[in-house]
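ok so i was messing around last nite and threw this chain in just to see what happens. nothing serious, just curious
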Amino acid sequence: MESSEHFLYKITPTRIGMVTEGPTPDEAAIVEEHSAYLTELAEKGTVLLFGRTINRDANVFGIVIFKADSKESALKIMNNDPAVRKGAMRAELYPYRIAFMAGAKEE
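result:
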């Protein structure tokens, strides 16, 4: 991926009880798949970081910052996330500009 842009997707649970009460067995399995998917993309250098807020209320959300060569490619990455694809989480895509990243070297 030579010419790439950065994107961010924000994810929120479709059922708030997943974080306030705990996930169902199906939701827990989907979250495991979600984490494995993002870890694999991080190992390939596509995903730069992912994580979530630690609050357990209606304001909880996660973010994924990643590289893609187009908005269409970015949408495909986001929509292929098992948590999004299987309906456990809603996602919103944003173009994103990294202004500074610790440890990053300018090319």
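not much to say yet. The two ends are 15 Å apart (CA to CA).
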